[in-house]
Amino acid sequence: MSGRDVSSKPALRAAALLAALTLAALSGGCSGGSAKGARPQDPAIPVKIAVARSVPVSDTTEYVATLKSRDSAVIMPQVEGYITKIYVHSGDHVSPTTLMMQIDPSKQEATVRSQEDAHAAQAANLKYAQQQYDRVSKLYEAGVASKQEYDQARTSLDWAEAQLRSLDAQVREQKVQLHYYKVISQTSGIVGDIPVRVGDRVTNTTVLTTVDKPGSLEAYIYVPVERSAQLRMSMPVQIVDGAGDVVADSHVSFVSPEVDATTQTVLVKAAIVSHAEKLRHAQFIRARIVWGMHDALVVPVLAVSRLGGQYFVFVAEDQNGKLVAHQKPLRLGDMVGNDYVVLGGIKSGDRVIVSGTQFLVDGTAVAPQDGG
Asked: Which of 328, 249, 358 is CA-nearest to residue 52?
């Protein structure tokens, strides 16, 4: 009997302990449920609010354009020969009459000397013909020389004079030709790339370099033929950099009357004032043509979030006397300053939440901050 009592005591103690734990758990659960039900409502999240509004925005299209200098001179030699000296470097500023290169003039100098010698010989012939004419003229007047002799002397003198004039012209021509062996700038500007080197043989078609006058550029814009009907002279054109900031303002100064058969585009030119540190000849740039103005709904960039390729904003709406955030999908257009153009999703006058959106979910209560 006592053995059974001893063995049953641990079992009784275990059962009592289990009952106590169960009662404590039930008591704690009821107590927790009671506390949760008694907890006050979550406070509204303070946010900054901006009203979606319609503002005038530009109807624009960006195109890749090329800058070309309106005062760019291509330097090519007028004679053939070997380059013996290059006096300038790329980037140098030159003025008219600046000596840029020297082409070997040895052959031309020899030609000039030969022509000068021929000229001197003919001058001697003319002097002799003059003397002969003077003698025959006096003999003819005295009746000693015949009319035929007189005419021959006159003809020889005239021929000698003509020959001397011809040689004189040839000497001047060869001297002018000799001048072309010195390559001289005909305008002021900045020297471009110099693809030739000392020792190269050049011809009349060899490009030696270019001279570009800074501050005189023109944007060549190729507009698809579908929009060519909207092109007008003096339309605003903006030159923008990679960040979209406007570098220079201009306007359409030329619209081609023809369509490029290969690209089906229309050439548009816009003259601009060059910013030497940003814009250069032959540079590819982005040109924004402003077609007109229209009213568009905008929202601040800070209010827009993106999830899975879709853009959203939170809009604060009245619900049972309090403000509640509702997430709405957006269709966006271009950026205008610090705002996005809204193509659809909200309407003018909606209260868009700008700050604190990372803490919001659909249906969260919000409270506008001071100034929000």
From this structure: 328
Q: State in words which class domain 77-103+183-212 has.
A: mainly beta
- Residue 282: strand, helix, or coil: coil
- CA 198 distance to own-chain centroid: 34
Nearest to 202 by CA among 99, 85, 89: 85
Characterise 228 by phi-psi region: left (phi > 0), alpha (psi -120 to 50), beta (else).
alpha
Sorted by sequence, the CB contacts under 8 Å of residue 1 that are 6+ apart come out as: none
> Tokens 């979030």 correspond to what residue?
305
Residues contacting residue 136 through CB under 8 Å, at least 6 positions apart: 145, 149, 150, 152, 153
Architecture of the domain delimited by 105-180: Orthogonal Bundle (1.10)
CB 90 within 8 A of CB 212: no
Three-state SS annotation for 94-124: ECCCCEEEEECCHHHHHHHHHHHHHHHHHHH
**Beta-bridge partners for 81:** 202
**What is the pTM assigned to this prediction?**
0.53
Domain spans, the chain: 45-57+296-368, 61-70+213-293, 77-103+183-212, 105-180
The pair of structure tokens assigned to 73 is: 């001179």
Neighbouring residues of 355: CB distance < 8 A, sequence distance ≥ 6: 47, 48, 302, 369, 372
pLDDT tens digits for 38-92?
A: 334 567 888 999 888 888 888 888 899 998 888 788 999 999 999 999 999 998 9
In angstroms, the CA 210 to CA 219 distance is: 19
Which SS3 state, helix, strand or coil, does residue 226 take? helix
β-strand 366-368 against 45-47: which pairing, if any? Answer: parallel
Which CATH number is 61-70+213-293 given? 2.40.30.170
Q: Determine contact, residues 271/218, Cβ cutoff 8 Å.
A: yes
| CATH code, residues 45-57+296-368 | 2.40.420.20
